[in-house]
Write a structure and sequence with these properties.
mainly alpha, two-stranded antiparallel ribbon, 69% helix
Length: 174
């Protein structure tokens, strides 16, 4: 079996599995993942880091060897551009609480990573010891790992608790 195919099979299955789990967290977890605009933007940004690697991995598996890599190259170039645009949009939006600021800081590398995904689609075979699909594997793997780090930071964020100030007014503390 081609090592690239084995890698993309694993990446695709893992990405879509974690995407489903992440959707469940966003849907059912407390903390405003769907109601707080900043938190929702962070959740959608992290979602893309599982969706795109899974989709791109699937495109690489479905691509025919006979087409010269045209299908996967177009898929990876488009996926990289989509990720690049979304990550720049996310970084330009307003900041948030400490946990989201940490996710935003981790996300500073995202435009570079997605640019790497798009650019690697144009690498001709034989330029490096790695095949073009192996280079893409490194790029999409880094996007996926970045998503895992972002989810870990989101899960490690302390829960907001209700407290009462000196006047007896309840408010949320952070």
């Amino acid at each position: 079996m081609d090592p690239s195919n084995a890698f993309y099979q694993s990446l695709t299955g893992t990405s879509f599995t974690l995407l489903g789990l992440w959707f469940a967290v966003v849907q059912f977890a407390h903390g405003g993942w769907r109601t707080d605009p900043e938190r929702h933007a962070t959740a959608m940004h992290l979602t893309l880091k599982f969706f795109l690697p899974g989709t791109l991995g699937l495109a690489s598996l479905l691509a025919s060897v006979n087409d010269g890599g045209l299908i996967w190259r177009i898929s990876f170039a488009l996926g990289g551009l989509i990720g690049l645009v979304e990550s720049v949009r996310y970084l330009r939006s307003s900041g948030g609480t400490a946990g989201r600021v940490t996710v935003r800081t981790l996300s500073l590398a995202d435009p570079l990573l997605y640019g790497f995904v798009a650019a690697a689609a144009f690498v001709p075979p034989g330029i490096t010891r790695l095949t073009p699909l192996q280079i893409e594997g490194i790029a999409t793997g880094l996007v996926f790992i970045s998503g895992l780090c972002g989810v870990w930071v989101a899960f490690s964020e302390r829960a907001r608790v209700e407290s009462t100030d000196r006047r007896g007014d309840p408010h949320r503390s952070r």
